[in-house]
Structures are given as C-alpha cells and as structure tokens.
Design goal:
By secondary structure, this protein is of the alpha+beta class. 35% of the residues lie in helices and 22% in strands.
Length: 208
Amino acid sequence: MERASARGGTALRRRLRLRLRPPRTATGFSGASPSSTGSSERLTCSPRILFFGLSLLSRVSKLEVRVFAHSTEDVDKVVKAALNVFPRDVGEVRFRRRVVSGQYGDSITILRAEVRGSKARKALRRLIQSLDKDDLNRLLSEVPLRVDEAGNLYVRLDKQEAYLGRLRLAESDPIRLKFSFKVGVDESVVEVVEEVLEALRSEGGGEG
C-alpha cells in the first residue's frame, strides 16, 4: 500500500508540472495565452512570413472594372472597350448594368465587373505589357498617389483607345480599374505594388 501511494503521488506531481509548463513558441509563430484550464494552446502565423514562398504576382487578388456608357454611346461598344482590358485567354467576364439619370436628365449606364485570382493577375500583366514607355513610367512614378491604405491600386484608361485594342492612361471619362493587393500588416502598400509592377515590366512592359 505504501509503494502504491508513493507511485500515485509521483504521477500526480508529474501531471501538475505538465499543467504549469509555459506554452512553447516556434520561429514565426507566437503562442496565445493559456485558457483558465491550461488545456489549450493556439498558434498564429506571424504577418512577417505571411507571403513567404509565394510569387510576387500572387499578391494580386482582385480587379474591379467600372465604366460609364452615356446616352450618346453604344453600350455594347463600351462593353467591348472594357473587355479589351483583359487578354483573350482570360475566359468569360460578365458586366452588370445599372441605368441612372445624369445631371441633365440623360440616362447613363454604369457597367461594372469583378474578377479574382488568375483573371485579375492576367489583366494586370496585360496592362503593364500594353502600356507604352511613357505611360508605364508615369504609372510607376505615380504609385504613391494611386494606392490607398487598403492595398488598392487605381488606374484609369482611355475608353476610345481601349475600344481599338490599345491601353492608354487617361483621366477624362475613363475606364476605371481597381486592383486589390495582398499586403502584410508590417508592409508598405507602395513598396509591394511597386515591386509587383517592376517585376512585370522586367518581363517586357512598356513596349505597347
């Protein structure tokens, strides 16, 4: 009986030591505070390695395209111009239509499409490879003015030129593009976007 009691006391002390042992940590991970029972431990990924091992282009997650078709314009032609933002192998892209009244009572059709993943990345590659040297240099120099804190890059393209299959920067009555980027908590949006655009330029951008 005395030996059994001794063994039982040893086992109890071991269990108590295990419960009181602090949570382990690993490189790139941090342990959450233990619960009141000491029975659970949660590991969360550090934002510093969130994109470790991913290609630069995988930072591009989404593209929103928006353009107005005025009452004097052929809506189908405006849709064609907006579709020319995408390369031919991107697959189907659908534009939603909403008709509103303009300032002078004329009707305006708002066309809007949203794509994610590879379609958004292919569109950005086409944009960078289609812009001429001057437009591409301008885009790269204006990145700090064209991004927001949420990780979005804003680009405006000439509607008439896009209808003809050419992508050119414009400000008046444009096709509006909003590219969304994945950016870590401790990263600079400007630096991430610039790095992606420079990588695409190295593939042959600025020759459009």
